[in-house]
Amino acid sequence: MTFTPAPFYILCGSLGAGKTTLLMRLLEHWKAQGRRTGVLMNEAGSVSIDGPRAGTLAEQVMNLAGGCVCCDTKEDLSWGIAQLVRDHGSDVLILECSGLADPAEVIDAVTDAYTARLASLERVIALLHPVSTEESHSSAYVTTQAIRCADELILNKRDLYVPGHWERFRAGIVEQNPYARLWETSHARLDAADLLAPHQTTKPTAPTNMLFGKPHTSSRQRAAYHPIATTVPLPGPLNRRRFLAWIKTIPKELERAKGYLRFGSEPELQEFQYALPGQATITPVTLLDEPKPVLVLIGRGYDVERLKTDLLATVEAGAETP
Asked: Does the fold of domain 227-312 match that of domain 6-221?
């Protein structure tokens, strides 16, 4: 049985820039068109946190937990694409990269000769926002790669920055990639139809965003650019007071934390989100496919075991700690 390759979109960019918000807008657009959208979620950690939310709009969601396509999930990506196209009849595909995944490696994976029979790379969409000057080397590298690879550059969270800062940020982005279309947004608000429309201008005939044909560095060298992702299963409901106190102990080296949890004597499932410079949110959420309670910690250079032990100490008495 032959398949017409499904258009494949890559959504990448900075940690905390709003990629999942934009993903949901795109899924709403495709669903309104009657498309059978297949979503690949490439998250850091062994458990998908954003996947259940996408599943409320997409035809099918495949989780590629691990965060780093270049290190350990290229085969999973190809397998996921095959599953979506062959088994679920997806006619449009989108991969939301983790904030740790090098988009150049995703492009390398999806353009594999086998995978390209099922999926055709359509667009690389990079979502970015002005970040702290203390951004980690790993995040800065991935952001630079996202800028370089992008066909669409979406500068988000404009409402949070003064004009002078924003103009400098925009100028720096354009200097790194003058070939992509530029979008300036707040809360990732834009017309999905406009974003997905063909470019009106003619692109240069030579590759511009990707330097295909040049030798790749080894996986061992690239691995240094990817922070460690630690998945912490939660064996029972947490004590709210102790958990709030734990949040205050999060070291600055922890770039990201997210997950689902429950508090003792509270029936609601809670979604936890944390990102530098230290903002944390805890929000009640209802999902069609409820995940197991878990937190994913993303960062490098802090005492992982101590933070994990302190987190598990917030579990209510009576639950067994793994």
From this structure: no
Average pLDDT estimate for 21-42: 91
31 backbone dihedrals φ, ψ, rounded to 5°: -65, -40
The structure's pTM equals 0.60
Burial class (CB in 10 A: 0-12, 13-18, 19+), 210: middle
Cα–Cα dist 30/17, whole Å = 22
Burial state string for 66-79 with b = 16 or more CB within 10 A and e = fewer than 16: bbbbbbebbebbbe
Cβ pair 300, 44 in contact under 8 A: no
Please report how many Cα atoms fall inside a 13 Å half-sphere around the Cα of residue 69, on the Cβ side.
27
CATH of region 227-312, choose from 3.40.50.300, 3.30.1220.10, 3.30.428.10, 3.30.70.1130: 3.30.1220.10
The mean pLDDT value for 107-123 works out to 77
Question: pLDDT (tens digit, 9 = 90+) per residue, 220-241?
Answer: 232 222 345 578 899 999 999 9
The domain limits of the chain are 6-221, 227-312
Choice between 20 and 29, residue whose per-residue pLDDT is larger: 29
What's the rounded mean pLDDT across residues 288-293?
Answer: 82
Query: Which residues, listed in sequence order, are joined to residue 62 by a DSSP beta bridge?
Result: 40
Per the document, the length of the chain is 322
Q: What is the CATH number of domain 6-221?
A: 3.40.50.300
- What does the DSSP 8-state code read for residue 73? I
